[in-house]
Amino acid sequence: MNGTKPRNVPSSRTGSKRAIFGGAIDGTLLAIQVGDGKLFRMRALAAPQLRGVWAAVPTPWTTELKLDTVALEANLQQYESWGAAGVYTTDSDGEFYAIELDDFRHLVQVFGRAMAKTSMDAAVGVTWSNTKGVIDRIKAATDAGIPNVHFAFPFWMPLAKPDVPRFFEDLATAVPESRWVHYHTPRGHVRLSGVEYAEYQGTYPNQFIGTKLGTTDIIEIADIISHSPRLAHFGVECSAVIAALIGAQGNYSYWINTLPRWTIDTWTLCEQGYWKEAMLRQSKLIRWETEFMDLLRAVGHHHAVIGKARAALSSRIVDNGLTRPPYYPAAENLIVDLRSHFNKFWAEEREQEDVLLRENPR
Question: Of the CATH numbers 2.20.28.160, 3.40.50.620, 3.20.20.70, 3.10.129.10, which one belongs to the domain with range 19-277?
Fold first, then answer.
């Protein structure tokens, strides 16, 4: 910032294997050569295109803790059948923190090829503990055909105020064809205001397309959405309806892995302005999280461990529940107890979901 002119970066890089097809940022197609000589294309999103329910896909592991490619591809097909607008991998629910670069490259290549066969948009989480690690992961994502990326600020030590604009500039310079969704989370320490988001979007108008608002603070959500209207803001599960009422364009969802049609239908209620019904659903989910999922948090579990426990409650996606050390899955007795609570608390919704998926699998 500090008076910097907007950076209208080029849509391709000289001498790079990455090539952008089409000049506009709204719907740019990224073409990548794959092993059999064919091309697949994923679009680089502009803010108006970034909307709806996006699924947080867990990273499925084999018993040897290698990527289970069959399970991953099956789950992506499920998301498309349920009507998800997009899918993103390797954020917190995707265990980004337990995936080193070589494994990351393999995962996003598999993800990119599989997503190119669907009608959904794709994004990749690229957060890491230093700038080089973030850039390496952005390059891996764009090499896999996916220019849309999520990132938080490096998480071990807070960035100093002068480091924040340098961080964005380093990313913009290193991979100018990337499109950014900033993960607004306390794990990143630095919390940008709505005015700051607007300033950074003005500096990087091609790249900065949205935010993932990992907060339940209504005042904070309102400040960010109202002061940076050129960005596509997304809520997360326990704030999605409130964020939508204020102006958010979508929901980055883990609950789609448990009650998919309920999740999609809740967002549809928001889009159609049925706020009372949507808020009743939001309130019930918050009650579930605080009364029951907190049983796992009390033991010390977080992120992907809890995400996979949620998915195990309904078995809508293919996953064996394994997570990579040092973060081990929740104990089986906890999952059994939680499933019992789930079947009672969500009995009506579960029954309706079974009927809907059986009668209208899409």
Answer: 3.20.20.70
